[in-house]
């Protein structure tokens, strides 16, 4: 038993140093840009979307609220629904629209500072494109479904003029604020990353992931991946960060080609989406909107995300 812990610790230490260093630098850069108001300037993107989808003004209010907190935006949306200000279909579309700011935030807090450095510019960039494509497909679905089913004639929305928050020119103060804020995020992510890496390494060395590997192995064979790719793809289902790091290591060591690494990431993400939806999203959405409506929101959102990853998988399957 002690040997298993030593092996797990050794595997963990082989993964984490470079990843944590790159992660910290990237988080600082993205945090600095956020401090200068980059995300705030991107909020205007959602305004024409609300109009295009023919959603009411209440949907615009919850969308802007979701730019700060999706839970807060959805809670407000549920209150509008209870007060009969929104129909069920409008709540369904608005809840999906409230998830769009997550794509903007995650771009600057996870995809650019973490995933691309871990996977490399080429593989990470393609994976990032699939992430953006999932968001775009959801937007298209919301707009088309909203316009096809909306009975509202007057759906124009007037927004109050925004006042830009004053941005201090004392970059020293900005840097100190960014370091203070990002260090909290860095420690939280680092603890999760190191803990999950150690646990998964421990389970792998103990043989506990064998059954999960047995499920994934036929898929890796179908997509023409080496047998060793079954473990990082299985890991991806439990922890995308650890799975991506494992795939990045195999890519660096020459075990996987660029195309194979992309396929492994897409397959891992495809399998991870339903697991994540059941483990996290389903509880949140059903608690806010009730089981029927909440489950429908999660189901459609998950299916759209999986379809995008499946399309990327098919494309790269023919390219391998």
Structure notes:
The protein has helices at 2-35, 38-41, 46-52, 57-66, 70-82, 88-98, 100-119, 121-149, 171-206, 210-222, 230-238, 240-252, 258-289, 291-319. The protein has 320 residues and is an all-alpha fold. It has a domain at 209-320. The radius of gyration is 21 Å and the shape is globular. The two termini are 41 Å apart.
Number of strands: 0
Name the quaternary structure: single chain
Order of helices and strands: HHHHHHHHHHHHHH
Largest sheet: none
SS element count, helices: 14
Query: Which structural category fits the helices and strands?
Result: mainly alpha
Mean pLDDT: 79
| Percent in strands | under 5%
Query: Over the alpha carbons, how many angstroms does the gyration radius reach?
Result: 21 Å
Termini separation: 41 Å
What's the helical proportion of residues? over 70%
The unreliable regions are 153-169
Shape call: globular
């Amino acid at each position: 038993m002690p040997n298993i812990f030593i092996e797990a610790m050794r595997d963990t230490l082989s993964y984490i140093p470079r990843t944590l260093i790159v992660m910290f630098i990237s988080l600082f850069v993205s945090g600095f840009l956020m401090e200068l108001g980059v995300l705030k300037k991107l909020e205007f993107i959602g305004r024409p979307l609300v109009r295009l989808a023919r959603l009411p003004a209440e949907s615009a209010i919850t969308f802007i609220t979701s730019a700060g907190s999706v839970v807060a935006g959805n809670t407000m949306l549920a209150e509008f629904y209870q007060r009969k200000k929104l129909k069920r279909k409008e709540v369904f579309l608005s809840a999906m629209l409230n998830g769009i700011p997550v794509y903007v935030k995650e771009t600057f807090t996870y995809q650019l500072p973490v995933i691309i450095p871990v996977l490399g510019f080429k593989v990470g960039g393609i994976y990032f494109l699939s992430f953006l494509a999932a968001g775009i497909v959801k937007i298209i679905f919301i707009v088309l479904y909203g316009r096809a089913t909306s009975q509202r004639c007057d759906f124009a929305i007037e927004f109050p003029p925004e006042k830009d928050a004053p941005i201090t020119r004392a970059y020293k103060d900005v840097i100190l604020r960014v370091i203070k804020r990002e260090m909290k995020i860095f420690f939280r992510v680092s603890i999760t990353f190191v803990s999950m890496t150690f646990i998964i390494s421990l389970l792998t060395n103990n043989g506990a992931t064998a059954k999960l590997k047995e499920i994934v192995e036929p898929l890796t064979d179908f997509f023409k991946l080496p047998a060793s790719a079954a473990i990082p793809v299985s890991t991806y289902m439990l922890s995308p960060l650890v799975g991506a790091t494992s795939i990045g290591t195999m890519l660096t060591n020459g075990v996987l080609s660029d195309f194979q690494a992309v396929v492994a990431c897409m397959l891992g993400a495809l399998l991870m989406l339903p697991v994540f939806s059941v483990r996290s999203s389903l509880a949140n959405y059903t608690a806010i909107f009730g089981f029927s409506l909440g489950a429908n929101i999660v189901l459609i959102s998950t299916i759209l995300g999986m379809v995008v990853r499946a399309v990327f998988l098919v494309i790269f399957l023919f390219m391998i």
